[in-house]
Every structure is written in structure tokens, then in C-alpha cells.
Specification:
The protein has 475 residues and is an alpha+beta fold. It has 9 helices and 12 strands. Helices cover 52% and strands 18% of the residues. A hairpin with a 2-residue loop joins strand 3 and strand 4.
Length: 475
């Protein structure tokens, strides 16, 4: 039986659609509920009718004893048939038996019965009621001992009634319950099938749209939905469309990434190959060519190193050392290095500087600030100013690097932290500037987030930009 149930569950779960499974499970549950309800109703009805019949039997037995004056008798023969016939109008059968079970009196409607209604209870010491089979008919029989005033057993009184009416009522009830139950289960199965078909239609639309997107390789498509966005299907559609939008952005970012990395690697490789060809033709080492090769190799090394760092960061394998450090001391170190880096191109100044202690990786935080200062110097014209600052605000340390450069257009601000994204069209660089690969800000943003902080930027065209590194203070 257990194996059959398990096999049935497997077949229903794996080979039928959700709509049919819901219809089957709902119908099965409804059938069980109706069956339990029917059993309870049937039991209550049988119990009620049987109790009513038992009350009639008890009342009749008491009347027989009272009319026959059982108490003063010394012999059972005084319970004559005329005295018993007055009770047969109720459809009851009455017998008076001696102590050995021989019939001493009976109502006329069972004169032809030559044995007790319930012979098995001859000898019982207490009044007993039970159902027996008499001539292939179900009869409810009460058996009561007849005792004299002295306590002597004189015989037995048996009063019976056919259970035909009870059986007819219960059979009719069973037939009604079965008919109504089967009809209810069938109608509910049809109703739930139609309802689930309508409810699951948006899911079929989602499936079809997903298949079309897969076949067409078009992530720009979205799933149409006209219902409310508050129900389960609406939230599923919204989540699926959001997933498609994110996948589209990631796919486009990957495509841009491949194009940018190809471009970034092709440029130094072309320079290296050109210089190698020149050295071959000259057949003698040339310092300028060797320096150019070395510069391009260093550039590719930095690019590969940055890509490796980002890959490790995204996979969670880039270690971040957490130790207490004084952020103002770190900022002074960056300031001294920045003055050397700026040479005579721009002026690096130190603005507001509060004392701040944070928990973090000293080397990586220094890398972030140096990257911000390097970008500020790179994109600030000659004679401009780059200012470093540190302030404590509401439990946060804010490191700012501001410049007086040309600024960043508003439409480019949300993307300045993307990989390989450079606003070269508005942030002009000198011809001597080698330029980076556009990974520095992406790495800086990740390091800030790994420390529980964030990196923000504000800018105005023609007035300059300000990058802010926010880090939680050590409390």
C-alpha cells in the first residue's frame, strides 16, 4: 500500500501539469473532508435512531411488567398472551420466557417463532439491549430478567423491534451523501481546473516569453502583464523583468568590457611590436625603444593586476586586513606623496583635517586615496588646485579629494565607477599623459564597500569635482 501511494505521488508530481495536480489534490482533499463529514453524520443518525428505539423498548418492557403485575407472581403462567397483544400495535415483538428459555407467552405477531428472539442472553443477570438477526431480519432486542419480590429469578422478558426503518434511513442517507459527495468532487475538480487555468495563464505567458527571449537571444524584451502588481503573479512578472533588465545590463557591460580590454591590450601590444620591429631593423639596442617597451609592459602589468584584483574581489578571495588606524596620519602620508606626484603641474593643499580612527586595511585605504588624488591631478589643468580634507560627521569619517578641473557632465556621474569608463570627451588630458585603463575607481569603490563605507562624487562643469570616501568611525 505504501509503495502504491509513493508511486502515485511520483506520477502525479512528475508527469502531470501544475493545473492538473492542483485539481487532483484539491479534489482528493475535498473527497476526504466529505467522507469524514458523511461518516460523522451517518454515525450521529444511527446513534440517534438506535437510542430512540432503545427508549421505546425500555418503555414497553416497563409497561409489560407493570400491566402483568410481575412483582407478586410466583409462576410465569400469569403473563398471558392477551396481556401482551396490547403492545404489538407499535410494531414490537414480545416474548416471556422461563428460566430455561422456553417460551411461556408471546405476542400474536410472532406466534410462529418457536425460539427466543435472543437465545444467547438467556441466563443474563442484567437488562441488555443488542441487535440480532432473526429469520434473516435485523432486530433490536431488549432482554430483561424477571425477578420476584424475594429476589428469585422467575424468567425473562424479551422485547424486539425491526431495524428496517433504521436501515432504510441510513441507506438513504449513505446514498445521498455518496451522490452529493461525488457530484461535489466532480464539480470542484472542474471548477478548480478552470480557475487554475485562468490563474496560471500569466505563468504560461512568462514561460513563452522566456523561451522567445532564449531563442531570439534578445534580452531587451520584457514580459507584458496587465494584472495587479500586488499578487503573486504580478510580483513574479516584476521580478522576472527586473532580472532580465539586470542581465541585459550585465551582458552589455560584459560586451563593453571585452571591447575595452581588447582596446586597452591592443594599444600597448601594438607599441611593443612596433618597437621590436624597429630594433630588428636597427640590429642595435635603442634606449628610446627599450624604454617605450618597458613602459607598455608596465602598463599591461598594471592592467592585468587591476583585473586580477577585481576578479578576486568579486569572488570574495581578496583579503582585507582589519586593524585600527589613524586616518589623519594616513592622509598626511598621502599628502606628502601627492606633492611629489603633482610636481609643478598643480598645487596640492591640505584643507580641514580632524582626528579620526577607523578599522580597516591601511594599504588598501591608502591605495584608494592615492587613486583619487592621482585622478584629480591628471584631470586638472596646469595651475589648478587639488585639496585633501578629513572631517568627522555623525559617526562617519569623510575623506574628500576636490579639484578645480573641468568637471564631469551630470549624465556621466552615475557611471564613473564602472569598469573602463572614462569621461575623456569632457575631461581632457595632456598629450604627455599616458592614462589609465579606467579600473581605478571601480577598485576604489569596492574597497570602500568592503570597509562598510561608500564612495561618492559630485561635480560641476568648469568648476571641478569632489570625491568623498565615507568610512565608519571606531566607536
Amino acid at each position: 500500500m505504501i509503495v502504491f501511494v509513493h508511486c502515485s505521488f511520483v506520477i502525479v508530481h512528475y508527469f502531470l501539469s501544475i493545473r492538473l495536480r492542483l485539481a487532483l489534490w484539491y479534489s482528493a482533499i475535498l473527497a476526504v473532508v466529505i467522507s469524514l463529514f458523511g461518516i460523522v453524520v451517518w454515525g450521529v443518525l444511527v446513534f440517534s435512531l438506535t437510542n430512540q428505539m432503545d427508549d421505546r423498548l425500555n418503555q414497553t418492557a416497563e409497561q409489560v411488567v407493570r400491566v402483568s403485575s410481575v412483582t407478586p407472581i410466583s409462576d410465569l403462567s400469569i403473563l398471558t398472551i392477551p396481556q401482551l397483544d396490547i403492545f404489538q400495535a407499535d410494531g414490537l415483538y414480545i416474548q416471556v420466557l422461563d428460566t430455561s428459555g422456553r417460551i411461556r407467552g408471546a405476542s400474536q405477531n410472532i406466534n410462529r417463532l418457536e425460539q427466543p428472539l435472543d437465545p444467547d442472553l438467556i441466563g443474563a443477570s442484567e437488562k441488555t439491549i443488542r441487535s440480532v438477526i432473526v429469520n434473516r431480519a435485523r432486530v433490536r432486542v431488549l432482554t430483561a430478567p424477571l425477578v420476584s419480590t424475594g429476589g428469585k429469578l422467575l424468567g425473562y422478558l424479551q422485547v424486539g423491534a425491526l431495524l428496517r426503518d433504521v436501515d432504510q434511513a441510513t441507506n438513504l442517507l449513505v446514498l445521498t451523501l455518496v451522490s452529493v459527495g461525488v457530484l461535489s468532487v466532480v464539480l470542484s475538480a472542474i471548477s478548480i481546473a478552470l480557475t487554475t487555468r485562468r490563474a496560471l495563464r500569466p505563468i504560461e505567458t512568462i514561460t513563452e516569453a522566456a523561451l522567445q527571449i532564449t531563442r531570439a537571444d534578445d534580452l531587451s524584451r520584457r514580459i507584458p502583464f496587465k494584472g495587479t502588481s500586488n499578487d503573486e503573479v504580478g510580483r513574479l512578472t516584476s521580478a522576472f523583468n527586473n532580472t532580465l533588465e539586470r542581465l541585459e545590463r550585465l551582458f552589455n557591460a560584459q560586451r563593453r568590457f571585452l571591447a575595452d580590454i581588447s582596446h586597452e591590450l591592443r594599444t600597448p601590444l601594438t607599441a611593443v611590436r612596433g618597437n621590436v620591429d624597429l630594433l630588428r631593423r636597427m640590429k642595435t639596442p635603442d634606449k628610446a625603444s627599450l624604454d617605450a617597451i618597458q613602459s607598455e609592459v608596465d602598463r599591461m602589468s598594471r592592467l592585468v593586476g587591476d583585473l586580477l584584483m577585481l576578479a578576486q574581489a568579486e569572488s570574495g578571495n581578496l583579503p582585507i586586513l582589519k586593524a585600527e588606524l589613524e586616518l589623519d596620519t594616513l592622509l598626511l602620508e598621502v599628502y606628502r606623496e601627492s606633492t611629489v606626484l603633482a610636481e609643478s603641474k598643480v598645487t596640492v593643499t591640505l584643507g580641514e583635517e580632524d582626528q579620526a580612527r577607523v578599522i580597516g586595511d591601511r594599504d588598501k585605504l591608502k591605495q584608494v586615496i592615492l587613486n583619487l588624488v592621482g585622478n584629480a591631478i591628471k584631470y586638472t589643468p596646469h595651475g589648478g588646485t587639488v585639496t585633501l580634507g578629513l572631517a568627522c560627521l555623525n559617526g562617519w569619517a569623510r575623506v574628500t579629494v576636490s579639484d578645480t578641473g573641468v568637471g564631469i557632465p551630470a549624465e556621466d556621474l552615475p557611471r564613473v565607477f564602472d569598469r573602463f569608463y572614462r569621461v575623456d570627451k569632457s575631461r581632457t588630458r595632456t598629450t604627455s599623459d599616458v592614462g589609465g585603463a579606467g579600473l581605478g575607481l571601480s577598485i576604489a569603490k569596492w574597497i570602500a564597500q568592503a570597509h562598510g563605507g561608500r564612495l561618492e562624487v559630485s561635480s560641476q562643469i568648469g568648476k571641478g569635482s569632489c570625491f568623498s570616501l565615507w568610512l565608519p568611525l571606531k566607536m
